[in-house]
């Protein structure tokens, strides 16, 4: 490897070293806060402020148990998992057939419908809060997880449909025609031809929407409400912060409960997402 | 093929449904709080990491065990008012709200979101149990008692005597002494006074310093109208504030600190002096509390109106508000509220969480020495001054905090502060 780098022209070597250095700096920018979170969750305030980056003197889990007790975090995590999973499932159930139809559409109607989906980007989520609240109240679903499970996919559909449609457009029509000649129905073409090829696109949609659903705060706060049996982790977590005298070790421990699922899901889906980005780059 | 797919789809749906439905149904803890007969719902800020949250949870659990009645707890922190208000719009607000009287909540009684409890005070036998001054403070301009005053707060000044000793100084009682103490502390690399310059805690100290130059009656007029320039005393107060700031009394970059970071600075010995409310004093670690003495803000060395160091004294804390929904369940709420004002519950809050209560009581905190010190301060030690929250119009609150944050910055002159302060009232 060293010999290969040495064999490169000077300009390429400088480029390689620069990009490598920048990559490490970027990695450090991500790792240092994560490290800070982890070590702080084992410390008290004095240790956090005296020596922020030092390892904790003990690996005592009391901050975690306190966070769990004070904010009912297990319930909150369970509610976040339920809400996020069902919302993701519903998003895919709606976005996949819609994207499939739009990708195959050749007429003007398809373009109009695609344009309508893209219009969804123009609605600021904050502006939709009050009408959404009225809708929830009118449907009798105010202060329920159910309404948020229906709402989140609605907010995610524009992006999901745009991503999946562009992905599906790259699939050669010949594959679909061959399957049709074998007697496959449209649903079977979607399931057995498009879906396997679209896995990287689906992973991208899942990852982006997972981040958005899991981290949602304002809508769950207002629409799901303060009942500990229903509230999500993003609504529960702020109760660990007080006006004066916050125990930052406990707050960091609680925050890790929200960060770890994000990290896990990203680790699981990142390869597929990179593949999707790469295939777009190559095809582009 | 079509047959096969649909059969598989049906099978998957059946398995999925078979797993998910019992999962959702069997998780009793995930079932929304019951609103059934005999139950009430309580939306409380006494939750999470707030002092007294665990005591409240224990009190509710004991009440439920004793009476067999359900009390569903809904919990929020500072976002409780907005959640309660949107719930009210949908007619799904909790029967009882336990929240402080500040900002948005000041308008609840007038807007009909909560009912006045004036009549219930005698019917439920609570008048003699609550400190009369608290009842007065919680009564609005139209004579309506907004809520039952539950907890209260004092705002003494805490001095880390260990750090003062290291700097070779004593607790200051006048502004000249305070400036000398700040110099001595700075020369030892210790921060003098820390305060949340960017939020309401900095605003409170600013208004407290102003009260060193005006009578309480004049302060009432100034804070309700915002016309600082029409009060010579208020202008002198602002000039005094600027003098203290320019003398380095406050820690560096004080305009960036919050009520939370001020206490953290104090608890970690980065600063020696902090004006903090009594509920925050309950969260000072025992090891730190050993070297802390509680007193008041030093009086102006010249031109002031106070005889002794000042302490903001307030009966404002958490109140027990009854909503429109709750008005339908007064028979269920009555025993619960009476229980909250019982001797046993009052003692549990004072002894178990260091809370100051509006209940008439002789009990003094034992495990929270700073709270106990603060509650022992008499008019011979300090001069009480007002918490002006109830006088400042709701819409002025946030603009005023921006002004006081600007005042803690090093470049703002007294004239500029007075001008910006008056402009913050223009929105009202």
Structure description:
The complex is a heterodimer of chains A (284) and B (428). Chain A is built from 14 helices and no strands. Chain A has 284 residues and is an all-alpha fold. Chain A has a single domain (62-283), classed as MetI-like (MetI-like fold, Orthogonal Bundle), CATH 1.10.3720.10. The longest helix of chain A has 36 residues, at 248-283. Chain B is α/β, with parallel strands linked by helices. Chain B has two domains: 40-153 and 315-369, Periplasmic binding protein-like II (D-Maltodextrin-Binding Protein, domain 2), CATH 3.40.190; 157-275 and 393-424, D-Maltodextrin-Binding Protein, domain 2 (3-Layer(aba) Sandwich). In chain B, 45% of the residues lie in helices and 13% in strands. Chain B has 19 helices and 14 strands. In chain B, strands 1, 2, 3, 4, 5 and 12 form a six-stranded mixed β-sheet that branches. Chain B has a four-stranded mixed β-sheet with strand order 13-6-11-14. In chain B, α2 (53-67) links the parallel β1 (40-44) and β2 (71-75). In chain B, α2 packs antiparallel against α16 (343-353) and α9 (200-210) packs across α18 (394-408). The interface between A and B is large, with 46 and 52 residues. Chain A: It is found in: Cell membrane.
Main traits of this protein?
heterodimer, A: 284 residues, mainly alpha, MetI-like fold, flat, B: 428 residues, alpha/beta, D-Maltodextrin-Binding Protein, domain 2, six-stranded mixed beta sheet, four-stranded mixed beta sheet, 19 helices
Measured by residues with Cβ under 8 Å of the partner chain's Cβ, the largest interface is:
A-B, 46 and 52 residues
Q: Low-confidence parts of chain B, pLDDT < 50 over ≥5 residues?
A: 1-5, 21-27
CATH topology heading of the largest domain in chain B: D-Maltodextrin-Binding Protein, domain 2
The quaternary state of the protein chains shown equals heterodimer
Globally, the shape of chain A reads flat
Structural class of chain A: mainly alpha
Shape of chain B: globular
The overall average pLDDT of chain B, rounded, is 90
Rg of chain A, Å, rounded:
24 Å
- What is the number of helices of chain A? 14
At the first level of CATH, the class of the largest domain in chain B is: Alpha Beta
Number of helix segments of chain B?
Answer: 19
Terminus-to-terminus distance of chain B: 72 Å
Mean pLDDT of chain A: 89
Identify the CATH architecture of chain A.
Answer: Orthogonal Bundle
The tally of strands of chain A reads 0
CATH class designation of chain A: Mainly Alpha
Percent helix of chain A: over 70%
Unreliably modeled segments of chain A: none
Structural class of chain B: alpha/beta
